[in-house]
Amino acid sequence: MSPHVLILGGTTEARRLAADLAARPGVRVTTSLAGRVARPGQLDGEVRIGGFGGAEGLTDWLRTHHVDALVDATHPFAEAITVNAARAATAAAVPAVVLRRPGWRPGPGDSWHDVESLAAAATVLPRLGRRVFLTTGRLGLAAFAHLRDLHFVVRSVEPPEPPLPPDTEVIVARGPFGLADETELLRAHRIEVLVTKDSGGEATAAKLTAARELGLPVVVVRRPPLPDGVTAVPDVAGVLDRLGFGGP
Ligand SMILES: NC(=O)c1ccc[n+]([C@@H]2O[C@H](COP(=O)([O-])OP(=O)(O)OC[C@H]3O[C@@H](n4cnc5c(N)ncnc54)[C@H](OP(=O)(O)O)[C@@H]3O)[C@@H](O)[C@H]2O)c1
Question: Each residue of 231-243: pLDDT tens digit?
Fold first, then answer.
């Protein structure tokens, strides 16, 4: 019988993995999306949308749909689903792989300030600049809502949810973003400090280069840790290897 792979998606890597697996004869692949984005874009293979109902719900889904392997290819900051996936894979005795693109690392000329949370980012911001480019996503902006004296330019894929800081401009846009455009954006809005999560990947990395070239500080929210005992592979090739599809 065809092996059935469930990918927990929402990332570029999940999309690439689905395309690779769907092109293999005899492999059934289903991508699961949380349903946060209105138009998630084309995905190869089957797609299901919406939460499972916690680790128990995911365990049931793995059993009911005869899943042979689970790939957690969710975003590095999607902490709850990663915990649930690890629990469900154990409970249903389904082999699991976590795909996490490597995090960003500062290079010469970077002025990065690592913090553990959005709240910690809000604490350091006022001493770094008054005009802020905030690219941490549309959720969690309440952490900055009390910063009345700062001007925020918020960029997110979907419009952000209130509460927001009172002086906020919103740019709704989806990457990838190029260096020339990012530099122009920082200049046009007279940005003094950038805030980002350590998402990693190339699609949104140009803002870091632009900030370095303009001599701007960057506040980097570090990733939540993986659940105990869980290790990750950094790319699609690593997942294919672990699933036994690797090699020439
Ligand atoms: N967090 C980010 O910065 C970010 C950025 C880009 C993309 N994403 C993507 O957006 C999705 C949601 O992220 P999040 O940070 O809100 O997640 P989260 O906090 O880890 O998950 C919250 C709940 O959403 C449901 N869920 C999350 N991912 C799911 C998936 N792939 N399929 C089905 N249900 C899912 C689960 O509900 P139940 O408990 O009911 O199963 C989970 O408990 C993820 O798939 C992630 O890859 C997140």
Answer: 899 999 999 999 9
- pTM comes to 0.93
List, in sequence order, every residue forming a beta bridge with 33; answer none if it has no partner: 49
What is the Cα–Cα distance from 176 to 100, expressed in whole angstroms? 18
The CATH code for residues 112-221 is 3.40.50.720
- The most distant pair of C-alpha atoms in the chain lies apart, rounded to whole Å, by 62
Q: Catalogue the long-range contacts made by 156-160 (C-beta closer than 8 Å, 24 or more residues apart).
A: 157/37, 158/36, 158/37, 158/38
Do 194 and 216 touch, CB atoms closer than 8 A?
yes
Query: Residue 79's pLDDT is what?
Result: 95
pLDDT at residue 245, rounded to an integer: 86
Fold entry, domain 4-102+225-243: Rossmann fold (3.40.50)
Angle at 50 between CA 45 and CA 56, to 5 degrees: 105
Q: Which mutation among 7, 29, 81, 134 tests ligand 1's pocket best, with the greatest number of atoms within 8 A of CB?
A: 81
| For the chain, domain boundaries | 4-102+225-243, 112-221
Measuring from atom 16 of ligand 1, which residue has the nearest CA? 78
Residue among 74, 135, 156 whose CB has most ligand 1 atoms within 8 A, to mutate: 74
- Ligand 1 centroid–CA 34 distance in Å is 5
Does 248 have pLDDT greater than 70?
no
